[in-house]
Design goal:
single chain; alpha/beta; four-stranded parallel β-sheet; 4 strands
């Protein structure tokens, strides 16, 4: 299935009471806005729970339109730290999620039935033939349900552990899949 077909599947997904990206004014030529900067066709696929909630999207629209994610939240700080450990950048990976609609609040619990339906109708098509890292129990459970080969790791925002500990676990999974960029002697990523 080509990328546009997966976008079309995401656009067709309707599960009450959740809103679509179009309904919050954030539809675009991607399956998830993470893919504004993280849509590598060859890199590892990191699967998270969902993108953002409606108030965050409305409040942070300018940043989101530029990079597709909020760099200052813990989830993204950990992802960036894991990538830096491997000498990679956002453009070297593909990020998606199990649930492709927008919750009303950040802390809202998305039903398992809604997650399963979204994964069945959209996410599983993104993962075909890819090397997958499932971020957290929900993503790992959905990958397992569809027999998608994956490495299960912590959710980047896992409580009770430092950002560094979470980043190391994710970086080790990226390395286990064979992905590593060029790292200079000072530990920073080499350009180009």
């Amino acid at each position: 299935m080509d990328y546009q077909e997966i976008i079309d599947r995401r656009r067709a997904l309707v599960i009450e009471p959740y809103k679509s990206l179009a309904e919050v004014g954030f539809d675009g030529p991607w399956v998830t806005p993470y893919q504004i900067t993280s849509r590598s066709p060859e890199g590892p696929v990191l699967v998270a729970l969902h993108w953002l909630d409606e108030p965050s999207i409305l409040r942070e629209r300018a940043t989101l339109q530029n990079v597709g994610y909020l760099p200052n939240i813990r989830f993204n700080a950990v992802i960036d730290a894991a990538l830096a450990r491997q000498g990679l950048s956002r453009s070297d990976i593909y990020i998606t999620q199990t649930f492709h609609l927008v919750p009303k609040k950040r802390s809202e619990r998305v039903s398992q039935a809604a997650i399963r339906r979204s994964f069945d109708e959209v996410t599983r098509f993104e993962l075909q033939g890819r090397k997958v890292i499932a971020l957290g129990d929900v993503a790992a459970g959905e990958c397992a349900r569809h027999n998608v080969e994956h490495i299960a790791v912590c959710h980047p925002s896992r409580r009770g552990y430092s950002n560094e500990k979470n980043a190391i676990e994710i970086a080790e999974a990226i390395a286990a899949l064979g992905f590593r960029g060029v790292i200079k002697e000072d530990g920073t990523q080499a350009d180009g």
